[in-house]
Specification:
mainly alpha; about 375 residues; two-stranded antiparallel sheet; about 65% helix; globular
Length: about 375
């Protein structure tokens, strides 16, 4: 034994490292290093200390052991579990048994429950209904008291919609609408349509475009055409179209004309919404508006035709066949308005134009079907029921 010890000491002196020892034989100088009982040796012959075990507990990768060391593996697993328990206690965590998926009888962690599916209605229905009732009540009160107040409602809605539209363009695409000319010119289009009709609205529109051209000049050439195009589109799509709704008010039967227009659009939207939610299966324009279906469009046609036939014959002393034509035309323009705004929002990468109306989005999200329908309503009603 003395000879063996001398040979080991000679090798230590020559290499500066302790040679590998037989399992269970303590190394010189290891007495001060605490170990877990029964901790196996690493393949290089050195024992794993408590420091290395803490490293395992902290998530440090562990070198896999060679085959044939089953007892050592079990002892090592016990030591590792003890270290993990100590670390969890030090961190204030409650240690618990860890299930081994491979062990017989063990229970693997159950998968997280699937997220609750979104409502097929696609919106906060109670909020949407509440907002729609409030808006409808405000419109009816204005029409039944002083009908010209409806023009004020149109003017406010167009101004808010212009702010929303210009804000989205600036935030998302860095397109700058000439706000002052479009806002001022837009109000001029609506209010001049009251006494002067089409001539007043079109004159204000042309002057608004000229003002936009001048307003954007100091900004330089970069993006000039883009900004002017957006400003002209905003002036035409919002206030100019809205002016046709204002032109429904002045005739003596203006209340009936406005109600015929609004009831037709609401019936088209509501019929399409109900039919789409209950039985919509065949997408109408999947790349533009995936939720719009042919079943929903059929519901819009039914609702629009029934509403048009009733309102034109009862409110305006028109014929039923005129109401049918009117209803079909309103359905087409309302659907076109929905698709156009969906395409604009898809191009900009936004879901809604705003958040002002709970359950609906922004003002622009409610004006989409009304604006083009106002133009067609004025044209058809002027032809069917001349002033």
């Amino acid at each position: 034994m003395a000879k063996v010890s001398e040979e080991r000491e000679d090798r230590v002196d020559a290499t500066g490292a302790h040679p590998a020892a037989a399992p269970g034989t303590p190394e010189p100088g290891d007495a001060g290093t605490p170990e877990f009982p029964g901790t196996p040796e690493h393949p290089n012959g050195s024992r794993a200390s408590a420091t290395s075990e803490a490293g395992r507990a902290a998530g440090t990768p562990v070198v896999p052991e060679a085959s044939g060391t089953g007892e050592a593996s079990r002892l090592s697993a016990a030591g590792t579990a003890a270290a993990e328990t100590s670390a969890a206690s030090a961190n204030g965590e409650v240690a618990g048994p860890v299930a081994d998926p491979a062990a017989p009888g063990s229970t693997a962690a159950e998968p997280a429950p699937e997220a609750k599916k979104a409502s097929k209605a696609g919106r906060n229905l109670p909020a949407a209904i509440g907002v729609a009732l409030l808006l409808g009540a405000a419109i009816i009160v204005s029409l039944l008291t002083v009908r010209y107040l409806f023009i004020g409602i149109i003017a406010i809605a167009i101004a808010v919609g212009t702010f929303e539209f210009a804000g989205v363009l600036r935030r998302v695409a860095d397109i700058r609408v000439a706000m002052i000319p479009v806002l001022v010119g837009g109000q001029a289009m609506i209010w001049l349509a009251w006494p002067f009709g089409r001539e007043g609205a079109l004159t204000a529109f042309v002057l608004t475009v000229l003002a936009c051209l001048l307003w954007r000049l100091p900004g330089g050439a970069k993006g000039y055409l883009r900004d002017i195009s957006a400003s002209t589109f905003a002036a035409a799509y919002l206030p100019l179209f809205g002016a046709f709704a204002a032109m429904l008010v002045p005739p003596s039967d203006g209340v009936g004309r406005v109600l015929t227009f609004l009831i037709g659009v609401v019936a088209s939207d509501t019929g399409g919404y109900i039919a789409g939610v209950l039985g919509g299966k065949h997408p109408m324009a999947p790349t533009i508006s995936p939720k719009k279906t042919w079943e929903g469009f059929a519901g819009s046609v039914i609702g629009g035709v029934v509403a048009g036939a009733l309102t034109l014959s009862l409110l305006l002393d028109g014929h039923v066949w005129q109401g049918v034509i009117f209803g079909v035309a309103i359905v087409l323009t309302a659907t076109l308005g929905d698709l156009v705004e969906s395409l604009i929002k898809r191009d900009l990468g936004v879901k809604d134009m705003g958040t002002l109306l709970p359950g609906h989005g922004g003002i622009m999200d409610r004006l989409d079907s009304l604006l083009p329908s106002a133009v067609v309503s004025w044209l058809l009603l002027s032809a069917f029921v001349p002033v």
